[in-house]
Design a protein that fits this description.
alpha+beta; four-stranded antiparallel sheet; 109 residues; 4 strands; HPr-like_sf
Length: 109
Amino acid sequence: MTAMIESPSSPAAAAGIDNGACACNVHVLNELGLHARPAAVLAQEAQKFRAEIQLRTEDQEVDAKSILDILSLAASRGSELELHATGADAREAVDRLSHCFRTRFGEEK
């Protein structure tokens, strides 16, 4: 799964908000979607940050630190998600997690 950042500059530049919030849009590019292995990688990486981190679709918002929550999105290849973080290290969290999407969580396809 890889993310395409929908902003002209870095992922963190996407949507800086006054309360220490940051957001960007990402696309799932992995052939099998956001399945167990990339969901586990995403949750583990998210847990390294103090920020509250959510993944959002048009009708659902989940905790990016929870593998079960991530899997509940059933995000297939091509799905667009909003990665949103609030807190002191929100920008760093969005940068790191969007990088995970862009690099397909280490998967080749």
